[in-house]
Every structure is written in C-alpha cells, then in structure tokens.
Amino acid sequence: MAQKINLLLNKRQVFLLGLLLITSLFVGCTSNVIDSNVEIADRRWTYRNHISTPFEIKDNSKAYNIYFKLRHTADYKYANIYILAHFRDGKKMVTRRYQFKLAKNDGEWLGSGSGNVFSYTFPMLTNYHFPHNGKFEIEIEQNMRDNPLLEVSDAGILVDLAQ
Questions:
Q1: Looking at the DSSP assignment, which residues form a beta bridge with residue 35?
Q2: 3-class DSSP assignment, residue 79
Q3: Which of 60, 76, 87, 127 could tie 151 with a disulfide, CB 3.0–4.6 Å?
Q4: Which phi and psi (to 5°) does residue 16 adopt?
Q5: What is the pLDDT of residues 152-161, one digit of tens each?
Q6: Measured between alpha carbons, how far is residue 43 from residues 50, 106, 136, 155, 161 in Å?
Q7: Closest C-alpha to 163, from 68, 63, 26, 41
C-alpha cells in the first residue's frame, strides 16, 4: 500500500515538474523588446502627428529586428506609403526614408485583412546591432503628399530579437 502511495506521489511530482517546465518555456519565448501600436485619431495622420516609441536595449551584443507596423482601411487611396523614421540613441539622431508597398498592381491589398482593415508588418532594419546598451527612441512620421493622410487607423514599431 505504501508503495502505491509513493508511486502516485512520484507521478504527480513528475507531472507538476513537466507542467512547470512547459509553462516556463512558453513564458521565456517572448523576444519582443517593444511592440507598440498608436491609434491615429479619426484615421487622419497629419505631418505633425509623429509616433514616438521609446525602449531600452539591455544586451547590445545580440542582433535585433526593427519593424514598422501599419493598419489602414480599404478606403486608403494609395498602393504604397512613405515614412520618415528618426532613430535616436540619446546622443545622435539618424533619419531614414522608407517606402512600403501596400497593394499589388491590380489593387489587391497585400496586408492581412480583417473586415475593412488591413494590417502590415514591414522590416526596417534586420539583424541590427545597437551601438550600446541603454535607452533608444524611434519616431515615425508620414511622408506622403497628403496632409492629413486619410484612412490610416494606427501605426507602430516592433523591436524583437533576431532569430
């Protein structure tokens, strides 16, 4: 009888240990440094409405990927978008201009759709090594001819560890 009780306790301990191990694997898998989305008021993105995303890098020996995230409605009237990205590290600022394609030549949206809204995640920098540990900021501004740029619902930045 005592052997059966010990066997049941050992099975329970092994089960709990396995469950704890699996849970810790899933919890430890998040490699995002920052994942931000900022809603654009009334879906009217003006030149003055910059999207600023501060974050901290704790290990600059690792490589990171930086993505621009965008959501727009089906009424967005262009097949692309131009943005200016200002990369700040506290000491200096570097500005880059990006163009991202949003639709095929026939007008079909390239983003993943959910009803009337289409989502995109575009790479800006891949396998990037930050120059030092510390606080950084990425500021995004729309760089299209229209001001305001209509039917953009939100935009943001994703920084995660490169795999």
A1: 158
A2: coil
A3: 76
A4: -65, -40
A5: 999 999 999 9
A6: 14, 24, 27, 11, 31
A7: 63
Dihedral sign computed on CA atoms, order 37, 41, 47, 52: negative
Which run of H or E residues covers position 77? none
Mean pLDDT for 68-95 is: 96
Q: Token digits for 17?
A: 């240990």
Burial of 44 (0-12, 13-18, 19+ CB in 10 A): middle
Strand, coil or helix: 144: coil
C-alpha 55, offset from chain centre: 12
Read off the DSSP letter of residue 59: -
Q: Which tokens sit at 60?
A: 């600059």
Instruction: Name every residue whose Cβ is closer than 8 Å to that of residue 59 and which is 6 or more positions away in sequence.
Output: 133
Reduced to 3 states, what is the DSSP secondary structure of residue 5? helix
Cα angle at 142 between 119 and 58, to 5 degrees? Answer: 75
In this prediction, residue 10 carries a pLDDT of 61
